[in-house]
Amino acid sequence: MSDAQPLDPEDLKLITLARSARARNGVPEGAAVRDETGRTYVAGSVSLESLNLTALQTAVAMAVASGAKSLESAAVVTAAESAADADRAAVRDLGGPATPLLLAAPDGSLRGTVTAG
Description:
- This protein is of the alpha+beta class.
- The chain has helices spanning about 10-25, 55-65, 85-95, and strands at about 30-35, 40-45, 45, 50-55, 70-75, 100-105, 110-115.
- The longest helix has 17 residues, at about 10-25.
């Protein structure tokens, strides 16, 4: 992981939105993605008897359902130490392997940035 450069204000916004979704919904993860037009999509984890999605999978699905063609950036707020393979795959499917994925702790502090690839 690398976080050598200061975060862009728009990326900080993604972390704030993801953190808010996590807290508001009382779920283990919150996520936010920004599409190619600058629109953001925010989601929490989904855990139903018939459907389980990570927060990032849900946010990517919301972007696709709203017509997004690609992603500029993604963020997930979680207690996990690293990005789940399923999260990286979802971001890569829509954004490509170079799309940055920001991994933040529940307090909003950035743990690092990885690419979806």
